[in-house]
Amino acid sequence: MVGPSLSAEDRDRRRRAIKTGVVLVVGFSGGLIALSGNASPELIAASVVGGLVVGMGLVWYLSRLSPW
Where are the domains of the chain? Predict the structure, then answer.
């Protein structure tokens, strides 16, 4: 009989990597948008931090919806 190709530990590691990637993409996109608008360095940093917070909230919300 054929079982799953990934162990539970590998599956958890991949899920964590995907979640981390989503948070980073959302966070840095906020900084890039601020950068394209010629914002000050402080505002760019605040945009990245704000985007990371929003990204964490998004991952938390989506993980509650998904049985994954």
Answer: 34-68
